[in-house]
Write a structure and sequence with these properties.
Spore Coat Polysaccharide Biosynthesis Protein SpsA, Chain A, alpha/beta, 12 strands, 2 domains
Length: 321
């Protein structure tokens, strides 16, 4: 038996799961750069398509015959589609990679080495770069009334060096240091199979958004470390699907946050978080409305942000009732 045959028969070290829903250009770039930089990492790549209508599944079959393609009959959402990928995976580790991620180096190898050396780490995630190759925010704190209030009043932006006004978006975070965090945003996770077996799969009640906070909360509650790994990076384009309907997707994100609050927090904390989220969207609606009126050069952007804030505010008020 030759070396290539032995490699094919050997159980993969990592299963890479990519959920696909249209956005053909981004999916192709993700798969191309993944294969380019995968190196010697023994991996299986699983693409789970949520009934794309732009020809992406057929193009995956044509251009990437080694990718295991799963065609869902409908749009099952992010969490459920990833869980379907889990069911078809065999790796010791699982990498959950968004379809609009662009690899610029072998990101998996150093993350796998780190997790092999730290068996108490159940989940890790790399540095996120934006399209300008600048480090972007990819971590969060679990929401509390205080840190969501700090964010609502922009105190975390005004006093970035203050521990007192730290917000749940972690604008004060040092992305050059590998460290434990509350939440890793769900753009790129590396998860240990044994930790997944203990924690359980993603909660399919979350259609899109919120599943990252929920899953990381459950990992931490189960005693599994969640670690931001500064030793490697990848580009996340972001908004590949949500850009087609930004107001709708902003409301979906707000809905998902409320799902997290209802699932994990008692009535008192839920009420406090609801009020701070209402304050957050109300102040921004007022602010963007003023910007729209006085700043002629940026009216389109201000109008969109105003519409998003008003839509989220309306949803929150209905949820509160």
């Amino acid at each position: 038996m030759d070396a290539d045959t032995q490699r094919l028969n050997k159980k993969p070290l990592v299963s890479i799961i990519i959920v696909v829903w249209n956005a053909q250009k981004y999916v192709m770039e993700c798969l191309e750069t993944l294969e380019q930089y995968l190196g010697d990492v023994h991996a299986e790549i699983i693409a789970v398509d949520n009934a794309s209508t732009d020809g992406t599944p057929d193009l995956i079959v044509q251009r990437f015959p080694n990718v295991k393609l799963i065609r869902n009959p409908g749009n099952f959402g992010f969490a459920r589609a990833n869980n379907i990928g889990i069911q078809h995976s065999t790796g010791e580790y699982l990498a959950f990679v968004n379809s609009d991620v662009v690899f610029i180096e072998n990101s998996l190898a150093p993350m796998l080495d780190y997790m092999a050396q730290h068996p108490d780490v159940g989940m890790s995630g790399p540095q996120m770069l934006d399209t300008q190759h600048q480090v972007a925010r990819s971590t969060m704190r679990f929401p509390t009334v205080w840190n969501t209030l700090s964010r609502a009043l922009a105190l975390d932006s005004l006093f970035r060096s203050s521990n007192f006004f730290e917000g749940h978006l972690m604008l004060d975070f040092n992305h050059s240091v590998t460290t434990d965090v509350d939440v890793l945003a769900g753009w790129f996770w590396l998860v240990r199979r044994t930790a997944l077996d203990k924690v359980g799969p993603l909660d399919e009640e979350f259609f899109m958004y919120g599943e990252d906070i929920d899953w990381c909360y459950r990992f931490r509650k189960s005693g599994e470390r969640v670690v931001f790994f500064a030793g490697t990076k990848a580009i996340h384009i972001g908004g590949a699907s949500s850009s087609v309907a930004p107001v709708r997707f902003s409301v979906e994100k707000q809905r998902a946050n409320w799902q997290v609050f209802r699932k994990h927090f008692g009535f008192g904390k839920r009420l406090g978080l609801l009020l701070t989220e209402i304050l957050h969207n109300a102040t921004r609606a007022i602010g963007y409305g003023i910007l729209y009126a006085v700043k002629q050069s940026d009216r389109q952007a201000s109008l969109l942000k105003y519409q998003r804030s008003v839509a989220c505010l309306g949803w929150l008020l209905r949820a509160g009732v």
